[in-house]
């Protein structure tokens, strides 16, 4: 058993409070994304690339029975097969979007409502996690807001799969409750939350295993091996439930020989150290930082929650200032050695490579990133040996765990070649080790998306730090008001683009027996996504395609002239629109 007791168990009976919190989070989502709520059926957020593609996928999921051959082949990239395995399948999002479409809502409306729902769903799931750990709704509000509304979500407003991240905090809350009570019902909740998260975002399905592994190592003592086996069994049930999808993806990827390019994709879509202070240009408060990095490299979690988490570090250290022993001395020695090596690395970067050979001692500054890696390793050892960390581990402190987890996950987001402004700073980081595992090596394109998991851990740590503040009720309320105001201000968007979705002007007659349609030229994102969305009107597959992967032939078609493209496709009856 851990020292953690399910503090929030009694609070779970206060359903009116939880419903009120969800309603408040929903209202905030509407306000922050305004005027999207006024244009649900005609406009999409940010652009007509990914959002229009996803709206079409959600439509397909509502029209065709999932996992059938017709479903796998999809609506684009004709005549290629397995199109639905070229990106996320969004079956988790379809739990919301499909019923909406069955009720008569358009694919665009269903997409927009699902996107809006992702904010309060993530917030209330994080709220539940913090409530479980603290038993207090004020601390839970801090976590809910920081996770459900932050600059990172603003940077990915067009990526619905990344916004649907509510399964992870729900799964962690269930694990904490199971660790404290050993009740099987929480394992059922864990398995259900994990399954829904896997169905919602393939990136999180892989990345979340890292956080779950860290959680198990920290909270489950050796004598709790039976509980660990029960947790593994619950995770196995979730894996079994989604195994047909995993098998289908593997078969399609093998058939088309789909892999990720290490330099241009894996390294290119890794975070830079400067990413942690880079927000989207859509951020009203921090948009000026967007010049540092673009797109996937905008990982700024928010200053307010970061300051709270750092306050948690101070609170932990102050509680163990008097603890001193031999290991504490060794920790200090490691800190000194780490500082010396870091100084050597910095000097080599500033002055250029150098070597010192004194016979009995040789010092080299020819590879700063390797020297800095050694300094980082010594710093980690120093932290592990410190009285604070050892004491917090003995009692399985949630605050210490989520601080450590946030740091580890942020490091993972840096990918296999961590860099600062493009210059490599670490050698063989944790993500390089992960790439030796299945899925990480050949299927993951964007390591930077570890950012959402890191922000989850940071949000929990911030709420736990807030809960540890020894303040009178009035002072606590005042601090809460400042924190809430800061988090909301940092997640505020300005001038959210809402491009209009145009209806296709080219229609197919009722007697047309074409197998597919094609709009020329191929290879233009906006034309291809619009062409694919046209399938919602007549259910004819499109030769056009846009996705995370592309079949080999499509790269050839994009370079062909219009007449050559026509000749290439003469084997299939195809309607062509120029």
How would you briefly describe this protein structure?
The protein has helices at 15-32, 50-63, 69-73, 91-102, 107-134, 137-148, 151-155, 160-163, 167-181, 184-200, 202-219, 225-256, 262-267, 303-318, 326-351, 368-385, 387-394, 398-413, 430-434, 440-443, 451-468, 473-490, 525-533, 535-538, 552-557, 562-568; strands spanning 355-357, 362-364, 419-420, 423-424, 516-519, 541-542, 574-577.
Strand order of the largest sheet: 6-5-7
Give the strand content: under 5%
Mean pLDDT: 88
- Taking pLDDT < 50 over at least 5 consecutive residues as the criterion, the unreliable ranges are 558-572
Helix-strand blueprint:
Blueprint: H1 15-32, H2 50-63, H3 69-73, H4 91-102, H5 107-134, H6 137-148, H7 151-155, H8 160-163, H9 167-181, H10 184-200, H11 202-219, H12 225-256, H13 262-267, H14 303-318, H15 326-351, E1 355-357, E2 362-364, H16 368-385, H17 387-394, H18 398-413, E3 419-420, E4 423-424, H19 430-434, H20 440-443, H21 451-468, H22 473-490, E5 516-519, H23 525-533, H24 535-538, E6 541-542, H25 552-557, H26 562-568, E7 574-577
Parallel strand pairs: 5-6, 5-7
Antiparallel strand pairs: 1-2, 3-4
Helix pairs in contact: 1-5, 2-4, 2-5, 2-23, 4-5, 5-6, 5-9, 5-21, 6-21, 6-22, 9-10, 10-11, 10-12, 11-18, 14-21, 15-16, 18-21
Please explain how this structure is put together.
- The chain is mostly helical and 578 residues long.
- Helices cover 59% and strands 3% of the residues.
- It has 26 helices and 7 strands.
- It has helices at 15-32, 50-63, 69-73, 91-102, 107-134, 137-148, 151-155, 160-163, 167-181, 184-200, 202-219, 225-256, 262-267, 303-318, 326-351, 368-385, 387-394, 398-413, 430-434, 440-443, 451-468, 473-490, 525-533, 535-538, 552-557, 562-568; strands spanning 355-357, 362-364, 419-420, 423-424, 516-519, 541-542, 574-577.
- Strands 6-5-7 form a 3-stranded parallel β-sheet. A two-stranded antiparallel ribbon has the order 1-2. Strands 3-4 form a two-stranded antiparallel ribbon.
- Helix 5 (107-134) packs antiparallel against helix 6 and helix 5 packs parallel to helix 21 (451-468).
- The longest helix has 32 residues, at 225-256.
- 47% of the residues are buried.
- The model is unreliable at 558-572 (pLDDT under 50).
């Amino acid at each position: 058993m851990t020292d953690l007791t399910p503090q929030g168990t009694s609070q779970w009976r206060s359903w009116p409070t939880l419903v009120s919190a969800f309603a408040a989070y929903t209202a905030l989502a509407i306000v922050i994304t305004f005027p999207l709520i006024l244009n649900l059926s005609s406009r999409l957020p940010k652009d007509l690339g990914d959002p229009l593609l996803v709206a079409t996928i959600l439509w397909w999921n509502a029209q065709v029975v999932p996992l059938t051959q017709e479903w796998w082949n999809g609506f684009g990239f004709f005549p290629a097969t397995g199109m639905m395995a070229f990106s996320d399948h969004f079956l988790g999002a379809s739990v919301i979007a499909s019923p909406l479409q069955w009720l008569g809502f358009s694919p665009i409306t269903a997409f927009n409502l699902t996107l809006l729902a992702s904010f309060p769903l993530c917030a209330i799931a994080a709220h539940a996690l913090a409530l479980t750990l603290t038993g207090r709704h004020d601390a839970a509000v801090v976590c809910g807001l920081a996770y459900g509304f932050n600059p990172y979500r603003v940077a990915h407003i067009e990526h619905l799969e990344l916004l649907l991240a509510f399964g992870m905090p729900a799964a962690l809350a269930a694990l904490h409750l199971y660790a404290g009570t050993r009740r099987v019902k929480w394992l059922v909740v864990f398995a259900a939350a994990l399954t829904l998260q896997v169905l919602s975002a393939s990136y999180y399905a892989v990345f979340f295993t890292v956080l779950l592994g860290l959680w198990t190592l920290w909270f489950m003592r050796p004598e709790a091996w039976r509980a660990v086996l029960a947790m593994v069994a619950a995770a196995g049930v979730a894996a079994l439930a989604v195994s047909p999808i995993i098998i289908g993806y593997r078969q399609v990827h093998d058939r088309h020989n789909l892999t990720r390019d290490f330099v241009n994709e894996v390294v290119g879509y890794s975070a830079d150290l400067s990413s942690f202070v880079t927000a989207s240009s859509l951020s009203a408060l921090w948009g000026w930082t967007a010049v540092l990095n673009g797109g996937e490299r905008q990982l700024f979690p928010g200053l307010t929650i970061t300051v709270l988490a750092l306050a948690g570090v101070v609170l932990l250290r102050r509680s163990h200032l008097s603890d001193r022993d031999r290991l504490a001395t060794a920790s200090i020695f490691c800190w000194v050695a780490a500082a010396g090596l870091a100084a050597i690395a910095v000097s080599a970067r500033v002055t250029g490579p150098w070597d010192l050979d004194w016979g009995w001692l040789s010092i080299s500054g020819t590879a700063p990133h390797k020297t800095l890696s050694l300094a980082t390793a010594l710093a980690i050892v120093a932290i592990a040996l410190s009285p604070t960390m050892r004491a917090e581990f003995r009692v399985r402190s949630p605050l210490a765990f989520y601080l450590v987890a946030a740091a580890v996950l942020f490091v993972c987001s840096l990918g296999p070649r961590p860099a600062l402004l493009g210059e490599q700073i670490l050698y063989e980081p944790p993500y390089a080790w992960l790439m030796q595992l299945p899925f990480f090596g050949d299927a993951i394109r964007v390591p930077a998306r570890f950012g959402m998991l890191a922000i989850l851990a940071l949000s929990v740590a911030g709420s736990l730090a807030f809960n540890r503040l020894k303040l009178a009720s009035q002072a606590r309320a005042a601090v809460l008001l400042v924190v809430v105001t800061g988090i909301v201000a940092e997640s505020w968007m300005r001038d959210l683009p809402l491009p209009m979705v145009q209806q296709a002007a080219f229609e197919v007659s009722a007697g047309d027996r074409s197998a597919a349609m094609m709009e020329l030229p191929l290879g233009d994102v906006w034309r291809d996504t619009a062409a694919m969305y046209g399938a919602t009107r007549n259910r004819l597959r499109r030769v056009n395609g846009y996705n995370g992967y592309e079949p080999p032939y499509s790269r050839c078609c994009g370079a062909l002239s219009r007449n050559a493209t026509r000749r290439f496709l003469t084997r299939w009856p195809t309607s062509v629109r120029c």
